[in-house]
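User: Good morning. I'm curious how iron/sulfur cluster would be positioned relative to this chain. Could you predict the structure with it bound?
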Amino acid sequence: MPDAPPGPLWLLAELTYACPLQCPYCSNPLDFARTRGELTTEQWIGTLREARQLGAAQLGFSGGEPLVRRDLEELVAEARSLGYYTNLITSAIGMDAARVRRLKDAGLDHIQISFQASDAALNDYLAGTDAFAHKVEMARAVKAEGYPMVFNAVLHRQNIDRTEEILALALDLGADYVELANTQFYGWAFHNRHRLLPTREQLRRSEAVANRYREAHGDRMKILYVIPDYYADRPKPCMNGWGQVFLSVAPDGTALPCQAARMLPGIEFPKVTEHRLAWIWNESPAFNRYRGRDWMKEPCRSCPERDKDFGGCRCQAWLVTGDPAGADPVCGLSPHRGLIDRVVEAVNGGGAGAVNAGGASAAAGAGTAGDIPAMLFRNARNSKALHS
Ligand code: SF4
Ligand code: FES
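Assistant: Good morning! Here's the predicted structure, ligand included:
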């Protein structure tokens, strides 16, 4: 068994899968509605303490929508007393100016608000509910409390042509940081990828706009632009390696090396309610499964890139090829790169019939070759219907 790294640096606390929004690119599992129970306040506090003892320093509160949890302020206060740097990743629904003040008083360091688009019509269509006006109001409230304004927008085929308007909105709101993250295809986003992947031309135009804004406003607004890895020819070093720096705890206490991993076959992910976090991180079979190099197959096994990208993403390998130990299929050296190319070609004007091809696609409910299902919004009804 390879040595476990000293401890996670990052802890992502997915407090709840409950969410008032229905974004079709959500990274939560498709079957989230089947998971039962949420950790109690005391269980979360115990988890925060154990992770801090292991060395975790950065803590993200996420979901679902973490503001749904009424004990969020209590958890933030505990995190602050433990010495974490804390970040709230939120849609802003469930927030008002008084709650921003309470979170500030509890010691929250950072708030990131996600926008679906730059105008109410598209934003609220994608969110599945009226949310835009409130987000704008809360972005101003966050700024008024003295927080840096961290503005996040997930880009995809439906909104990427509005990159200019999105950046203008961010500028108007006084954003200090803007994250324009093209959709990564996990969870609901994978299910909807044929409707979400932008064309090459859309991507080129969007990046050009972002570069123009960087030149004009880079001194007051930092812009991070993440391209969809389907358009790359080498994979991202996902999570900086499996079980190396990142630990995610799902609402029901399941400990994961990444948010998407719980759908991987043949791995029993341990729960923080049943095991000490030190055992989970250092010794559990789940966290050791893809550490080191022994699990690698060719072409990764003998590739000079293997210690830089760790063979890419295990979840993407499973979703697209059906083999979680294979090379990430976005890699040009993967024998399965063709499965990604078929999607890219279909989106860029090739045959629509190729859109849904892929090893585990059918298992993930993406339909069959030859049809392009309507976009599926992330809600409990659709989650249950997919897994009935
Ligand atoms: Fe990375 Fe494997 Fe591709 Fe090499 S073959 S670049 S290790 S994914
Ligand atoms: Fe799970 Fe990349 S998202 S390993």
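The first strand starts at residue 10 and ends at 14. Confidence is low (pLDDT under 50) at residues 352-370.
Let me know if you'd like a different ligand tried.
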